[in-house]
Amino acid sequence: MTAFGKWTAPGAAPDDCLARNDWICGAYLATRRELLQDAVLQHLQLTAAAVALALVVAVPLAVAARTARWAAGPVLALTTILYTIPSLAMFSLLLPVYGLSASLVIAGLVLYSLTLLVRNILAGLRAVPEETRQAARGLGYGPLRLLLTVELPLALPAAMAGLRIATVSAISLVTIGAIVGYGGLGNLIYAGMNTYFKAQVLTASVLCVVIAVAADLLLLLVQRLATPWARHQGGAA
Amino acid sequence: MTTLSQAWTWLTSADNWSGEGGITQRLTEHIVLTAVCLVLSCLIALPVALVLGHLGRGGTLAVNIANAGRAVPTFAVLVLLLLSPIGRYGAWPTVIALVLFAVPPLLTNAYVGMRGVDRDIVAAARGMGMTGGQLLRGVELPLALPLILTGVRIAAVQLVATATIAALAGGGGLGRIITAGFNLADTPQVVAGAVLVAALALLVEGVCVLAERFAPAGVRRAGD
């Protein structure tokens, strides 16, 4: 592991940060721009697809668990068990179903996000005051209209809190997808590890955190815009 | 279904359990790694959380650290440590990465537990002339214990699950069975490894739940 010493032979590789294998390297950013862009794009696509799919599955599950009392126990137990399975193991368990594909990583992330989303949406729905429900019924709201225009909007803050945690976790979990070649920035970290390429590992790691923080702030902004009534009560949970 | 039955065959064959890199060795490595990291994380996180909770300061700090911790991929931390000078010291990069990962849930739960203690009880204890240390040990800690132990349980289960990542960086543990299976394109072995890790995680969760159930009455009071 001494391939990148300080000393370079006269007339050999130029003395730039790539040759010295520095952690921080402008030349790396300049020369690998497309590689980084592709990795970031894959990272975003995998996360977005997984979180969107998880939401599509979680909302009906949470509503079912809220409406049919008997469904709550099994739904919560199942999603909790899914959450206990390690990410590396989850990807491998799904391997026979999906093969080495992006769907494999997305499916794994969906199963992870489910626990957080179902729990939070259910908590939000349960926190809707009974008086509010009765008032809406008194105004002639049917069950569907009650759900869509009263209960779900009121459950939004709790649901968004879950969505933020699920999104941030998914962004960091995508990196493990590198084991099947679909890990977004994780691919660069994995490759950088094997070739001892410090600038690549640090750059990709920092980008992961930047994406996670940006996504969290974006969702916080969406939550503020979507729940104007909660704004004067001071911020999010 | 054939994959599952092949995985079962792999799991039940005695050859795979013994010897260098066998299931027994990987399982032991996994348990030792998890236990060491859990103890270290508790030693780091709990005193800080207890003192901060007692003083009633740094709550936002604790929550922010926990949230920021979730944003940093453990795999990235592991690889960064591996390429740094620490990488020369055997299992230390793995241990540090896992400890950094386990500290946030411990910190948050312990802090929230300490702050959740009824303020009237604290005021009454103060009125009886208890010093800060006595209050912390004799009143706040016992009342916060259920939530603190929940934090330890969450951290333990997550550590079992996350310790598999060590294998991606050439470390030991059950993750090695999975990565080796990947490299050999041996799906039954991959599935068998995954089942082992999941089973261990569920086992740890179960043991923690049982421990809470059969703990002294004071500990299980506010069980969830």
Automatic annotation (TrEMBL), chain A:
Gene Ontology biological-process entries: glycine betaine transport; transmembrane transport
InterPro entries: ABC_transp_perm/SBD, MetI-like, MetI-like_sf
Species, as recorded: Streptomyces qinzhouensis
Record membrane topology: Multi-pass membrane protein
Cellular component, GO annotation: plasma membrane
Chief place where the protein resides: membrane
Keywords: Membrane, Transmembrane, Transmembrane helix, Transport
This protein's name: ABC transporter permease
Sequence ranges assigned to domain ABC transmembrane type-1 in this UniProt record: 40-219
Matching Pfam families: BPD_transp_1
Transmembrane segments: 44-63, 75-98, 104-125, 171-190, 202-222
Cellular compartment(s): Cell membrane; Membrane
Family to which this protein belongs: Belongs to the binding-protein-dependent transport system permease family.
From TrEMBL, chain B:
One of the Pfam families matching this protein, by short name: BPD_transp_1
Membrane topology recorded in Swiss-Prot or TrEMBL: Multi-pass membrane protein
Domain of life according to the entry: Bacteria
PROSITE patterns: ABC_TM1
A GO cellular-component term linked to this record: plasma membrane
Membrane-spanning intervals of the chain: 31-53, 65-83, 89-112, 143-170, 190-211
Keywords annotated in UniProt: Membrane, Transmembrane, Transmembrane helix, Transport
Family: Belongs to the binding-protein-dependent transport system permease family.
Protein name according to UniProt: ABC transporter permease subunit
Originating species: Streptomyces qinzhouensis
